[in-house]
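Retro notes - structure team

What went well: the batch runner handled both jobs without manual restarts.
What didn't: labels got mixed up in the shared folder, which is why I'm recording both outputs here explicitly, each with its sequence directly above its tokens.

Job 1
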Amino acid sequence: MASKSSLREFQRSVAERLRDPSKLRAFASKLGFQVGEENWFVSLADVAEVVPVPALAAVPQTKQWFQGIANVRGKLYALVDFSAFQGGVPTPQGAERRVVLINERLLEASGIIVNRMLGLRNPDSFERLDVKDAGRPWLKAQYRDPNGAHWFELDVGVLAKSAAFLEVAAAQTTLGASQF
């Protein structure tokens, strides 16, 4: 029973830090997650919450990477498969799959689906590399950790303003009158 109360206290502590940006500035760690075969991390201030993937309602005539709408505690969220969005393979079903909900100050009611969470990371201990991927403007920085693993930093602000991310409607073919 003590471990459950400790877990609850820890969760409350993390939730409080996520709600108070002034506390986050002193906290250099970033939230790590896996997208396809890539390691990513994001500033805690850009994340509202991380949740298991809820039941999804498909939205017709949207791009294949737009997974649909989900109800998270009574609020509807638009969810994107982040790997498929970037041209990778769709995120496989699985117990480790998660949704990273984007902070509402950046984009309301949206989230990205990732393969799994990798915990908190401190990029101050990583080697910063040159960004070599102009096709992904939301890629803020690239790093190599002390074990040689490659990491990408997500700029959620840029992603949230990207037309490629915001335009989820699939290209429509127009039917001529003779096709009826």
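Job 2
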Amino acid sequence: MAAQKYKSASRKRKINNVVVHVALSILAVIWLFPIFWVIMTSFRAEKGSYVSSFLPDAFTLDNYIKLFTDTTILNFPKMFTNTLIIAIFSCILSTFYVLAVSYCLSRLKFKLRKPYMNMAMILGLFPGFMSMIAVYFILKALGLTEGALIRVALILCYSGGAGLGFQIAKGFFDTVPRAIDEAALIDGCTRWQIFTKITLPLSKPIIIYTILTSFMSPWLDFIFAKVICRANSDQYTIAIGLWRMLEKEYIDSWYTSFAAGAVLISIPIAILFLCLQRFYVDGMSGAVKG
């Protein structure tokens, strides 16, 4: 009797495993299909957005070459450089703001602390682009909407309100034992020394997460970049450039280059993730051991 029950349970377990693996395989195909399609399109020799077959009739690298050589209409290298500069500086500032605000709300006790957190939670329910018109006129009054200062304006837009996204980092800092801070204070450390030399080295996972999200937001944003850049084509970001490639006057000649550009913009994010993944895993293992 016990053997029959064991065989029945084993059979059910195998069936469940097969069903789960089949479902996950189907989901993986669904998720990977668009990526595979974009990559195949980026190597397609035929022009235009309408084709008769999924796989290209002929493969070519001309679509990638065109992005960096044909700058008469859409200057992709310039857009790539603009976006990279904006994303790097926004990432640095946003990461510092988020971690600093999160640490203060986690460790320091001050008046209006809870009202501030409640207000931040409420403001987080509204999408950021609701304020873009007001933000634009403020930046215009400061003279930051013309020329090279547009980069500064976008950096301020992406990093200025980053501190409101403190919830996840604060939750992580709450898990760091307060006894460490108290021992450091007894030894004569300041709050800044505790934050930079003790808390941050123990918080690698949340630092990596914050860096990744802070970099991806300006790298992929379209709305704020479009509103602030307007007709200043020399200050366009990649998102605006890719959008213009799909306009009716450009789509026939730039569609396959659009796919090539979509592949290229994923490379910096992939490199950043691969470089930081080791620190993320090390930090998680250290947290588990502690």
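One thing worth noting from job 2: The chain has a mean pLDDT of 84.
We'll revisit the folder naming next retro.
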